[in-house]
Amino acid sequence: MKVHQAALTTARVAAVLIEDRGRADIANAGNFGRRWTEGLKATVTQGGGNIRIRVTHDVEYWTVFQYGKVIRGKPLLWIPLSFADDAQGVMARDFPAPLFRVDRQGKAPLLISADDGQPKYFGKEQVKIPKKFHLVEIAAEVSRDLGDLFRRFFRQG
Fold first, then answer.
1. Segment 7-23, tens digit of pLDDT
2. For strand 107-113 and strand 99-104, is the pairing parallel, antiparallel, or unpaired?
3. What CA–CA distance (Å, rounded) separates 130 from 153?
4. Are 102 and 89 in contact (CB under 8 A)?
5. What residue ranges do the domains of the chain occupy?
6. Is 80 exceeded by the pLDDT of residue 51?
7. Is 41 exposed, middle or buried (0-12, 13-18, 19+ CB in 10 A)?
8. CB-based contacts of 73: which residues, under 8 Å, 6+ apart?
9. pLDDT in tens, 89-124
10. Are residues 134 and 25 in contact, defined by beta-carbon separation less than 8 angstroms?
């Protein structure tokens, strides 16, 4: 019983460490809000004589920021221009006004709103998303400390 309790306490503490460090890592990675930080979860389960720590994220494409990725357009990705407030968070195909394309020599093409004549998006063949998260590394770091944590909790029990 003492061994099991020490192992369970070790797993629970490790889960909290993974969540806390992982959420801090996400918060430090840039413009990631509450959905991203609170979406990281580390849960402890038991069964079949095993204790498991399961680390998940509510945002299904979190691995893009864990490993980095090149995203290719079909044929272009339409990216909102930073000053086009009405285009932020809206895919070009869903923009509420008609858009027309302007091709520019040696520069990215633009999509311009027919309503106000202002550019809203620019086109790129691909974008490279760099690695920004270190969640796998954090879980590995915590796992390296499991033996020390277990010994501490076993002695206390």
1. 999 999 999 999 999 99
2. antiparallel
3. 39
4. no
5. 2-67+130-156, 69-129
6. yes
7. middle
8. 123, 124, 125, 126
9. 999 999 999 999 999 999 999 999 999 999 999 999
10. yes
Q: Which residues contact 3 (CB under 8 A, 6 or more apart)?
A: 154
- Tell me the whole-structure pTM to 2 decimals: 0.81
Tally Cβ neighbours within 10 Å of residue 138: 22
Q: What backbone torsions phi and psi does residue 126 show, to the nearest 5 degrees?
A: -160, 160
Give 91's DSSP letter.
-
Rounded distance, CA 100 to CA 121, Å?
Answer: 10
What span, in angstroms and rounded, lies between the C-alpha atoms of 66 and 58? 14
Counting every residue written for the chain, the total comes to 157
Q: Tokens 């918060």, residue?
A: 27
Can you tell me the distance from the alpha carbon of 151 to that of 40, in angstroms, rounded to the nearest whole number? Answer: 28
Reported as type and span, the H/E element at residue 73 is strand 69-80
Q: How far apart, in whole angstroms, are the C-alpha atoms of residue 107 and residue 82?
A: 17
